[in-house]
Write a structure and sequence with these properties.
It is found in: Cytoplasm. With 256 residues, the chain is of the alpha/beta class. 47% of the residues lie in helices and 15% in strands. The chain has one domain: Aldolase class I (TIM Barrel). It binds phosphoenolpyruvate (PEP). Phosphoenolpyruvate binds next to strand 8.
C-alpha cells in the first residue's frame, strides 16, 4: 500500500518568525499522533533553515518550492539543489503552475529539474494540471499526459517510482473551487495508467499521486479516500494550523 503524503506549500507567505510558530504548533499536535502518512512543509527559502532545525527528530520533512537544475554558476537569484541539501531539505516542488505561468517553466525545465533533484537525493513533487479552458474543451487528459511525457523524458523507472506527482487543476488553485473527488480520481487514475504504459505495473503501482487545489479539512477525507489519490499538495490551508492538522488526520485515517 502506498503511504499517503501531505505537503504544505506556503508560497511567498510569512516570515521566519511566523513560520516557526506554525511549525511549533504542528509539532505539538503531531508528537502525540502515530503517523501513517508523510508530512512535508515547504516554506519560502529564507525560512527553510529554521524549519529544518525545528523539525529535526520530528515526523515533518522540509521541502523547497522550486530550485534551479544547475549545481552552481551565473544564475542570479536562483537556488541550486546543493544549497538545498546543504540546509537539510529533502523534497522539492517542481513545475508548480505558478512557476510555469509567471516564471517561464516548461516541460523541458521540469525534466531537467527532476533529473537534478534525483542526482542530489531530493524527492521531486512534480506538478501537472490543466486550465479551465482545457477542461471545458475536453482536453484535460491529453494535456496532463503531454506534460508527464515531457517531464519524464529519460527518467528511469527506479526514479519514477520514488517521485510524487501532484495533480493540480489550475482552476482549483487558490480559488476555493475544488475538483470533485470523481474529477480528481479520473485524472489521477489516468496519470497512473499513463505511467504504467510508459514503464510497468511495478512503477505505476509505486508512484504516489497527490491532488492539489483548494484542499481543506471539509473535503480532504473524500478526496483522499479515492483509490488513486495518495495525498494532497495544500496551499492556503497549510498556513492554518487546525486546517492542516485536520488534513493530516484525514490522510492518517486513510493510511492506517
Ligand atoms: C497549491 O498552490 O499548490 C495549492 C494547491 O493551493 P490551494 O490549496 O490554496 O488551492
Amino acid at each position: 500500500m502506498r503511504k499517503p503524503i501531505i505537503a504544505g506549500n506556503w508560497k511567498m507567505n510569512g516570515t521566519i518568525a511566523s513560520g516557526s510558530i506554525l511549525i511549533e504548533a504542528f509539532n505539538s499536535v503531531l508528537q502525540d499522533m502515530e503517523l501513517s502518512c508523510d508530512v512535508v512543509v515547504c516554506p519560502p527559502f529564507t525560512a527553510i533553515e529554521r524549519a529544518v532545525a525545528l523539525t529535526r527528530d520530528t515526523a515533518i520533512a522540509v521541502g523547497a518550492q522550486t530550485m534551479d537544475y544547475h549545481d552552481a554558476g551565473a544564475f542570479t537569484g536562483e537556488i541550486s539543489p546543493l544549497m538545498l541539501t546543504e540546509v537539510g531539505v529533502n523534497y522539492v516542488i517542481i513545475g508548480h503552475s505558478e512557476r510555469r505561468e509567471y516564471y517561464g517553466e516548461t516541460d523541458e525545465t521540469v525534466n531537467a529539474k527532476i533529473k537534478s533533484a534525483f542526482h542530489h537525493n531530493l524527492t521531486p513533487i512534480v506538478c501537472v494540471g490543466e486550465s479551465l479552458e482545457q477542461r471545458e474543451s475536453g482536453h484535460t487528459l491529453d494535456w496532463i499526459t503531454s506534460q508527464l511525457k515531457g517531464a519524464l523524458v529519460d527518467v528511469p523507472k527506479e526514479q519514477v517510482s520514488q517521485l510524487i506527482v501532484a495533480y493540480e487543476p489550475i482552476w482549483a488553485i487558490g480559488t476555493g473551487k475544488t475538483a470533485t473527488a470523481d474529477q480528481a480520481e479520473e485524472v489521477c487514475k489516468e496519470i497512473r495508467d499513463y505511467i504504467r504504459s510508459l514503464y510497468d505495473d511495478e512503477t505505476a503501482d509505486a508512484v504516489r499521486i497527490q491532488y492539489g487545489g483548494s484542499v481543506k479539512s471539509e473535503n480532504a477525507l473524500e478526496i483522499l479516500g479515492e483509490p488513486n489519490i495518495d495525498g494532497a499538495l495544500v496551499g492556503g490551508a497549510s498556513l492554518v494550523v487546525d486546517e492542516f492538522i485536520d488534513i493530516i488526520k484525514a490522510a492518517n485515517q486513510i493510511g492506517a
